[in-house]
Amino acid sequence: MTAVSTAYPSPPRRRRINKDRLTAFLMILPSIILVGIFVYGFIGITVYTSTTDSNAVQQLSGIPANPIGMQNYNDLVNGQLNTRFRVDMVNTVFFTALFIAACLGTGIGLAILLDQSVKGENAFRTIFLFPMALSFIVTGVVWKWLFNPTSGLNALPAVIGLPPGQFRWFISEQTILTFYWQDVPVILGFIALAILSCVSLYYWAKRRSRTAAILTAFTMLVLIWLTFGDPRSLITLQRAEEHGFNLALIALVVAAGWQMSGYTMAMYLAGLRGIPEELREAARVDGATEWGVYRHVILPLLAPITLAAIIILGHISLKIFDLAYAMGGGDNLFIDMPGLNMYFLTFRGGQFAVGAAVAIVMLIMVAVVIVPYLASSMRTEKSL
Amino acid sequence: MSAASRGSRTSNRRVVSRVIIYTLLITMAIAFLIPVYMVLVTGLKTPDQVNLSTMWALPGSPSLESFSTAFTELAPNFGNSILLVVPATAISAILGSLNGYVLSKWSFRGANLIFTLMLFGMFIPYQAILIPLVRFLQSVDLFGSMWGLILVHVVYGLPITTLIFRNYYAEVPTELLEAGQMDGAGFFGLYWRILLPISAPGFVVVIIWQFTQIWNEFLFGVTLTSPGSQPITVALQNLAGSQIIQWNVQMAAAFLTALPTLIVYLLLGRYFIRGLLAGSIKG
Fold first, then answer.
1. Which of A17, A201, A253, B6 is 20 to 30 A from B272 via CA?
2. Domain region containing A127
3. Whether residue B223 sits in one domain with residue B116
4. What is the average pLDDT across A334-359?
5. Which of A42, A134, A309 sits opposite B258 (nearest CB)?
6. In this prediction, does ipTM exceed 0.85?
7. How far apart are CA B246 and CA B239, in angstroms?
8. Which residues of B touch A258 (CB under 8 A)?
9. What distance in Å separates residue A83's CA from the closest CA in chain B?
10. Structural domain tally of chain A?
């Protein structure tokens, strides 16, 4: 408490300010404690629960739950009975990828269109953004009606004389890009290989050879593991279990994209408005076409916004619950998600420990996306 | 090529690009409004007018019957949501304002880390805290009650309300507070006399944000309530999930559920967007 500003030299006033500092800390303390318990304490308890065999029967009969280590997690990956969880994980990956792509594409497209000093910009913006004000449950209920396979959206082509659509939307049972669950380590290995080699090539090109050498070494290790290791043996599930991209997820992407692409547009629009007009002028003076100005000046400047949007959209889709609930109610595995699975395991099935394990997997997926984002924004604030 | 013809060519190109821009924008706007059209058209039909082959057609004779049915159905839950949203929004806004004041003007060692740790709380999937939360609420006898749900929304609303106010107060020049300190104002005096009078826009952003979030929330609503305390989103889902309720009533119910947040959005959209962006872009 020695670092009080020199602007207040007189001792009584300094004491006053020290007292105020204490008051300030005491005012925020309850919030810190609440978040500490309700977020971190409860996460800790959930982690613990996930390592036990806690369930409704055990709880009702008053027997304490037994610690069983990582058994629940192992069962989720390899257990005969946990197919639903594995379907959910695959669904989440495809849904997240498509949802982010749809929102980014629509969002930046709309933002660029609205950036052309159009008349009625406010009205357009209001229309593109209003779904954000709705509940995912409302969205789910309304789109379920629109996705009715014998009418709804499928009837629209008939308006201009085309044959009606045949796609069955969220009740479609088609699956493409199929693979076996046992292939997952190999697939992940190849993805890691592709990313690592691209990044190391990038660093070689940048002539940062030390980083590049380390990355190349990792690339080699993955390559050796893929060739000589036995990645498929990581999965101990005996039955060959087929997974893939369920086309029914497209319905979910359309509904979620309808709701969230306006948000992405608003982010991009805020970014576009932050780019000084002089910069565009300068590029035009240098002879750039309107498209060239976007391609070479504006889009590169929007890269941080794209990253932020990917993180925000990604964490929403990884934990999506309400929309899938409203459209499938947990009965339709083709659009099932981990959040739904956790809910049904815990609150309908009474399998608290397994539900907790699913929840922790969800938390880890979200944390992987969010923690670096928070850490980097904390660091940049410190340097200010 | 003469200057005149070059000029007319660029102006032609300008016209063409304008036409393309407006065509795209209007097409997208229509696409975004399709669900609204469908909700209104279906909601205004009587049950015997609702059938798949005439789904897109306007109602022969518009009737408000489905809306009144839906309203009777949802009224108790509509009331629950109001009873939930008003106190939860008010309390979390006040706490957020105090926290934001402390973090922006009375920062202490480690405040940045604590703030970041708090922020993480608004991104987590709430499934990861749900099981201990249920047990905690049961143990303090708040499970299934409105107050339990209010408490939960206040606590998990703290990160975002603190974030918005912290960034809002960071814009207030410190000299203003120093002048107040010279006049002998303490922690509360400065807040009450200097910050609070200029906090209205911050409160509007936070109140709109929290109102919308809590009104639209579903996971806590479905897991922490008893049938008597279910918020409107849960009632809508129950109504839409049952096979016997007809589409016209479902659409009317969806409309009624969406109405409060939609009105707020249409009236105060500017502030809504500010809250929206506060959650994604810092500083």
1. A253
2. 71-174+247-268+305-383
3. yes
4. 93
5. A134
6. yes
7. 9
8. 32, 35
9. 20
10. 2
Task: Answer yes or no: is B75 within a domain.
Answer: yes
Q: Does B112 touch chain A (CB under 8 A)?
A: yes
Phi, psi angles (nearest 5°) of residue B144: 85, -5
Residue B127 lies in a domain: yes
Pick from B57, A97, A289: nearest CA to B49? B57
Q: How far is A192 from chain B (nearest CA, A)?
A: 26
Cβ neighbourhood burial of B94 (10 Å; 0-12, 13-18, 19+) = middle
What residue of A is the nearest CA neighbor of B152?
A: A38
| pTM confidence score | 0.90
Residue A55 within any structural domain of the chain: no
Judged on CB neighbours under 10 Å (0-12, 13-18, 19+), B90 is middle
Residue B51 lies in a domain: no
Q: How far apart are CA A356 and CA A47, in angstroms?
A: 7
| Chain A residues whose beta carbon lies within 8 Å of the beta carbon of residue B258 | 133-135, 138
The sign one gets for the Cα dihedral B217, B222, B228, B232 is: positive
Question: Average pLDDT for residues B252-277, to the nearest whole number?
Answer: 87
Are A264 and A319 found together in one domain?
yes
Domain of A111: which CATH number? 1.10.3720.10
Q: Which residues partner with B225 through β-bridges?
A: B144
B25 to A28: CB separation less than 8 angstroms, yes or no = no
Q: How confident is the model at residue A15 (pLDDT cuts 50, 70, 90)?
A: low
Beta-carbon contacts of residue A348 (< 8 Å; ≥ 6 apart): none
Please tell me which of the candidates A319, A329, A356 has its beta carbon nearest to residue B125.
A319
Q: Residue A268: closest CA among chain B residues belongs to which residue?
A: B277
Higher per-residue pLDDT: A172 or A317: A317
Per the CB < 8 Å rule, is B121 touching A38? Answer: yes
Cβ contacts below 8 Å, chain A against chain B, sum to 270
Neighbours of A200 (CB within 10 A): 20
What are the chain B neighbours of A264 within 8 Å (beta carbons)?
none
- CB of A272 within 8 Å of a chain B CB? The answer is no
Return the SS3 of A368. Answer: helix
Instruction: Give chain B positions within 8 Å (CB) of A31.
Output: 95, 99, 118, 158, 162
List the beta bridge partners of residue B224.
Answer: none
Residue pLDDT, tens place only, A85-137? 999 999 999 999 999 999 999 999 999 999 888 888 989 999 999 999 999 99
What residue numbers bound the domain in which B24 lies?
Answer: 3-43
- CA angle B35–B36–B40, rounded 5-degree value: 115
Tokens of B8: 């007319």
At residue A244, the 3 state secondary structure works out as: strand
Q: CB contact, 8 Å: A268 with chain B? A: no
B248 part of a folded domain = yes
Read off the DSSP letter of residue A346: I
For residue A125, the chain B residue with the least C-alpha distance is: B29
Instruction: Find residues 173-202 of chain A whose CB sits inside 8 Å of chain B.
Output: none
Residues A261 and A127 grouped into a single domain: yes
A99 and A317 Cβ atoms separated by less than 8 Å: yes
